Each structure stands twice: as structure tokens, then as C-alpha cells.
Amino acid sequence: MPATPTANGRKMSGGGETEPPPPRLATLPARAKLERMIQVARGHKKALVLTHDNPDPDSLASAVALAQLLRERADVAEARVAYSGLIGRAENIALVKVLRLPVVPIAQVDLDEYDLLGLVDTQPPTGNHAVPPRLRHEVDIIIDHHPLRDESLQAPFADVGGDYGSTSTMLVEYLRAARLEPSTEVATALFYGLKADTRDLGRETTQTDIDTYLWLFPRADKQLLGQIEHPELPARYFQMYHTAYERAKVYGDTAIVTDLEEVYSPDMVAEVAERLMFLEGMKWSLAYATFRNQLFLSLRVKDRRMNAGRLIREICGDYGGSAGGHGSMAGARIPLSGRANQRKAIKRELVRRFLESFGVADERPVALLSAPSP
């Protein structure tokens, strides 16, 4: 991807630098942010928008909406959306299939063919995306509702953090500022992305999310939404939950941990962690599993004194891979190598460190399926 001039002069054909990146965009009105993004994008011919690995509905919807903005307001001739990893969860597969979202696996694109690179619902320093290290300083546009990673501010346009429960909310602000009416399919995707990330406006929701929900509601196709939210499920889905419950252990009546062993899709780890938080009295849930020689962990927190994203980075940061999240939910991916006993030792050590952070390391675990009912 060749270096090109940008609005703030970060990239130059000769490889030099002029002024530093602009100040944080999160504090600016939507119209001002839109104008700055258009300024950065205009003049480019081919844009590639990337989601995070194993994308969820929020990431997929945001990417499709950004691609539409670039085509219709920044005059970019082509804007394509690609993802790395798998779309494995049944609802996510249905989202793409039912709405016919134009997203493709990263293996089908050549990064060097694009002169504009966007990243949504993630940031270059996290590593949970398809941007190779050689291009992480070449990302032009970053839009993400997760906490700011300082390195992201090196991009010509980085709208990161702010008062949002989902990245879909942020993209709707851009669409409205651009007076651009999304198609029924894109509106339905954004609506579901917002619902999924905020758990139907019940988690880390702001007034902006509520306003966005109400704006999207009449534009979303409820029949298509029903097909997405209630898809048919494969037998292995129920087998996975059998394993999750069978291996789940409760610590001190406040924390629950389960090892899913090997999963058919890494995004199932987050679904299980989410589900386990419905157990009465739980303040913490941790689910983990292996997939293609990697360990995936998902953390959920109800204790307002703790930040799930910060905690998972502190615990998993020494093991390589990637980790991140925000107040009540976070995830990590760690590469695994060596013999089976070495892998088991890594899992034991990680669980021990989480239990210490939960304050239940000295509690004797009780198997979920044998725990007494209250």
C-alpha cells in the first residue's frame, strides 16, 4: 500500500512527517468528524475496511456502514469489507446470509491493491485483526467504541472511545450527519449490532445508544431480524453447552469458570461466558477453549470496581497474542505450542491468576451440576 498524502500530513511520498496527528476526535460533533474523515478519504480510489478477527454483529455492521459512507460521501470508487478468522456463531452466520452483507474472507483480497485502509471495532495495537505488522502504521481510518490505545492516534483519522455502547452507534451518527439513508439491510445489521453489543440496551448503554436504537427501529426489517436472532442450531452447539456446564466450577458463590476444551468456532467462548453470568449471584465468569492451536478466553464482570478489559490485558499480556475489551466484557487470544502437559500448565496458571483477581483463589470449587440449589 503506497504512502499517500493525508489531511493531517502524517504520510508523505518521501516517508517524512510534518505535523503530529490531530487531537482526539471523540469530543467533536458528528458533522465535524464526518468532514474530517471525508477529507482523509477523498482522492483515494480503493478502500478496504477490516473488522476484528472472528467478527461479531457490531463489527460486521459497522464495517458495511463505513464502506457505504466512503463510496457515497467520499467518492471512493470501491470500498470492500473483509474479515479474518471465522464467522461461526449461528446468529452471525444468519446476519451475513439473511441480509446478504457484502463481506469476504481476508484470503480473497490483496492488501497491496488498496490505497485506503479502515479498521472498525478494533485498533491496530490490539492485534486481533488482519492488518499485518508492516501496515499497522498505514491504517488511515479507525472507528472504535473501545477504550483508546494511544498508538491509534498516529492514524490520520482515529475516532476511538467516547460515550458509546457499540461501534454501530458511532456509524449511525456518521450516516445521520451525512444525511445518508442506509438500506434496509444495513439498517437491520446496525440495529442488531447495537442490540447485541449492549445486550438489548441493558449493558453499558448511553443516551446516544438509546437515541440510535429509536432511529434504527423503524428502518430495520423485523421479519429478517427474527430470522437472525432465532436461527436453526447445529447439534455441535448443544454438545458444546453440555461440555460447558459439565466442566463449569463455581468459586465462593460469586465466580464461575469453565473449560470448553476444543470448540468449532472461537466466538462461542464469548457466548458461553455471557450465558454463565445468568447464574444467580455471579459477579465474574470466565470461559476458555482452544481453537487451531490458540487459547481463547472470554471474561464477564458485574463488579463495578473492576475493568474487564484492563484485567484481561494485565493477566494475559505476558503470553503473547492479543487481549482487550472494556468495563464489563473482554477477551483474549493466546498462541499455544509445546506438548499437551505444557498447554495444560498455561491454562492452570491463567485460571489461578484470574481467581486471585476475583478474590476467590482460596475457595474450594464446586462443580456447577452438583452445586446445591438455593
TrEMBL record:
Q: What region holds the DDH domain?
A: 47-193
Which Gene3D superfamilies does the protein's record reference?
inorganic pyrophosphatase (n-terminal core) (3.90.1640.10)
Concerning InterPro entries, the annotation shows: DDH_dom (IPR001667), DHH_sf (IPR038763), DHHA1_dom (IPR003156), Oligoribo/pAp-PDE_c-di-AMP_PDE (IPR051319)
What's the superkingdom here?
Bacteria
Q: Which SUPFAM superfamilies match?
A: DHH phosphoesterases
Any idea where the DHHA1 domain is?
A: 254-347
Q: Name one GO molecular function term.
A: nucleic acid binding
Q: Where is this region: Disordered?
A: 1-25
PANTHER family the record matches: BIFUNCTIONAL OLIGORIBONUCLEASE AND PAP PHOSPHATASE NRNA
Indicate what this protein is called per its UniProt record: Recombinase RecJ
Q: Which organism is it from?
A: Cystobacter ferrugineus
Q: What is the taxonomic lineage of the source species?
A: Bacteria, Pseudomonadati, Myxococcota, Myxococcia, Myxococcales
